[in-house]
Each structure stands twice: as C-alpha cells, then as structure tokens.
C-alpha cells in the first residue's frame, strides 16, 4: 500500500521539506507521498491521534511542536531527550521513535569543511532549540571544547551543567573571540530590520576561524558577511537543513539520500521567490 509521510508545524506553507522529500521518494521509485499539514495548538492532540489511526509511516515536526510531540512517543532517542526536542518520528511495527536530526545534520556540514579535533575551541551563540541540538551533537561526537554564550546567561549555564563545557555572557565571548576556532551563530538577532543588532561584534575574530550561521536564506547573513571580510571560512545553514532531512529520510527508508539533489531543490525554491 502507498505510504504517507508528512511534516507538521505552524507556519508550514513555506516549508521546503515536502519538495526535498518528494524528489527523494520519486528518485528512489518509492510508492509514497510527503505532505505538509498546518496544525494549531488546539488541534495538535487530535491531529497526532489521527496520524496514528491512519498508520502514518513517519513524519517531521517543526516549530512550535518539537517538544509537544514527546509524550506521544513510544521511544525517545537519547540525543533528542537531551535537547528535549524531536524533529523526526520513525514508525516501525506501529511503535513511534523520536529523533532529533538537526544536530547530526549540522555536524555533518561542519565536518565537510574539515575534521573536528580536541584542539578545537567552539563558541555557540544562543541557547534556543537549534543551539541545544548542535551542542548535543558536538559534545557527544567530537572531542572539542565548547562554550555556549547567551544573552540570558542562565539558559547557557543550564545547557552545560554536568558537562565539561562552559557557559559565558555574550560580552565575555566577544572579548575572548580570538581563542575560538569555530563560531556557530544560532540566535535570532540581526535577522530583520527591527532586530538589526548582531549578538556580538567580530572585531577580535582570528582569520581562518570557521564561522557558521544556521540561516540559509539569505545565503549570507550580516554576521557571515562581516566574518568573511575578516578572513573567516564561512558556512550558512543550508548544509544543516539538507543533512537533517537526509538523515530523516535514511531513518525512514534505509536509503542514503542524494544531498546534491536536495540542495539544488532548495536553491531553486529560494531563488525563485
Ligand atoms: P531556536 O529554537 O530557533 O534556536 P529560540 O528558542 O527562539 O530559537 O532562541 C532564540 C535565541 O536567540 C535565544 O538564545 C535568544 O536569547 P535569549 O535566550 O536571551 O532570549 C537569542 N536572541 C534573540 N534575540 C537576540 C538579541 N537581540 N541578541 C542576542 N540574542 C538574541
């Protein structure tokens, strides 16, 4: 029987996940569809029960429901548990397992630049959902030293508690910027005209530092533009976005996803808008 996959969230109309996954399903000649569903806080529980009743084969969850899905799962992957957020549900024999592929997706993109070693000093700016997923992946799968800096420093402190990693104020990270070999920008600062201020200045950045931003549209945020002008190797959020979807596809189907195909679809969609 034809399989159904979907993404749920709010808003969802501009999600590029359906285009990427549909292309992968077609390329692999799988008899399946992937569709977006807009749901609200009020309809969330009924929608999830509906997916279960209909025998959904797997789904993605995006903002603001990445936490709300957790009570409906039979199994929670430890990394998803550590960041208390799930973006992918895998269904096997009727059992739902929750994963978070954002962190692994980010790490795969970072490793495409160069291997990460115990000599790396990583600065993560922000302590929201994306930051937590990236922190979990980096702390579990690399030997690097990590500092999380956040405007509300208590959130960063909570993230690193019980680990060998550190929390800092943004001002402290800014003053110590020269020591970092990798800087990861996950905050929502500087994305709009009304919120144009960057989380930190980059005056003390060392040339050759890897600077990444989780945003991919625009391709170069103001933060990345300044970093590039200071001699950084920059990476935007496109590899993370493509890889998180590729990892989800592989979890559902066991098939390695064609990342070039996915990247081209995203670039085509954002270029055409
Ligand atoms: P996401 O889930 O996408 O990571 P989020 O949970 O809304 O996003 O988190 C937004 C992050 O951007 C937070 O770390 C937030 O800092 P606070 O925890 O102090 O709110 C950060 N942020 C938002 N606007 C900012 C600004 N103008 N300057 C610095 N940090 C900002």
From TrEMBL:
It comes from the Bacteria. Residues 118-189 form the Quinate/shikimate 5-dehydrogenase/glutamyl-tRNA reductase domain. InterPro entries: Aminoacid_DH-like_N_sf, NAD(P)-bd_dom_sf, SDH_C, Shikimate_DH, Shikimate_DH-bd_N, Shikimate_DH_fam, Shikm_DH/Glu-tRNA_Rdtase. NADP(+) binds at residues 126-130, 150-155, 214, 237. The active site is at 66 (proton acceptor). It catalyses: shikimate + NADP(+) = 3-dehydroshikimate + NADPH + H(+). Gene3D superfamilies: Leucine Dehydrogenase, chain A, domain 1, NAD(P)-binding Rossmann-like Domain. CDD domains: NAD_bind_Shikimate_DH. Its EC number is 1.1.1.25. Keywords: Amino-acid biosynthesis, Aromatic amino acid biosynthesis, NADP, Oxidoreductase. Pfam families: SDH_C, Shikimate_DH, Shikimate_dh_N. Transmembrane segments: none annotated. Residues 237-267 form the SDH C-terminal domain. Residues 7-89 form the Shikimate dehydrogenase substrate binding N-terminal domain. It is an enzyme of class 1 (oxidoreductase). Shikimate binds at residues 15-17, 62, 87, 102, 216, 244. Belongs to the shikimate dehydrogenase family. NCBIfam families: aroE (TIGR00507), PRK00258.3-3 (NF001319). HAMAP family: Shikimate_DH_AroE. Involved in the biosynthesis of the chorismate, which leads to the biosynthesis of aromatic amino acids. Catalyzes the reversible NADPH linked reduction of 3-dehydroshikimate (DHSA) to yield shikimate (SA). This is Shikimate dehydrogenase (NADP(+)).
């Amino acid at each position: 029987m034809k399989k159904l996959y979907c993404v749920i969230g709010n808003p969802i109309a501009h999600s590029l996940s359906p285009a990427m996954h549909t292309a992968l399903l077609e390329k692999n000649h799988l008899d399946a569809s992937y569709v977006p569903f807009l749901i609200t806080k009020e309809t969330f529980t009924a929608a999830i029960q509906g997916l279960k009743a209909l025998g959904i084969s797997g789904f993605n969850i995006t903002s603001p429901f990445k936490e709300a899905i957790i009570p409906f799962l039979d199994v929670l992957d430890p990394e998803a548990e550590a960041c208390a957020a799930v973006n992918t549900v895998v269904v096997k024999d009727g059992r739902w397992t929750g994963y978070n592929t954002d962190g692994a997706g980010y790490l795969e993109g970072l490793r495409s630049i160069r291997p990460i070693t115990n000599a790396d000093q990583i600065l993560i700016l922000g302590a929201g959902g994306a930051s937590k997923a990236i922190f979990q992946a980096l702390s579990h799968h690399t030997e690097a030293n990590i500092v999380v800096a956040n405007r509300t420093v208590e959130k960063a402190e909570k993230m690193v508690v019980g680990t060998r990693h550190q929390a800092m104020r943004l001002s402290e990270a800014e003053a110590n910027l020269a020591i970092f070999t990798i800087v990861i920008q996950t905050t929502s600062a500087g994305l709009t005209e009304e919120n144009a201020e960057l989380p930190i200045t980059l005056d003390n950045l060392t040339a050759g530092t890897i600077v990444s931003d989780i945003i991919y549209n625009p391709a170069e945020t103001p933060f990345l533009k300044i970093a590039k002008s200071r001699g950084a190797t920059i990476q935007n959020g496109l590899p993370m976005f493509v890889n998180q979807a590729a990892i989800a596809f592989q979890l559902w189907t066991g098939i390695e996803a064609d990342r070039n195909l996915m990247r081209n679809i995203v670039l085509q969609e954002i270029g055409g808008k």
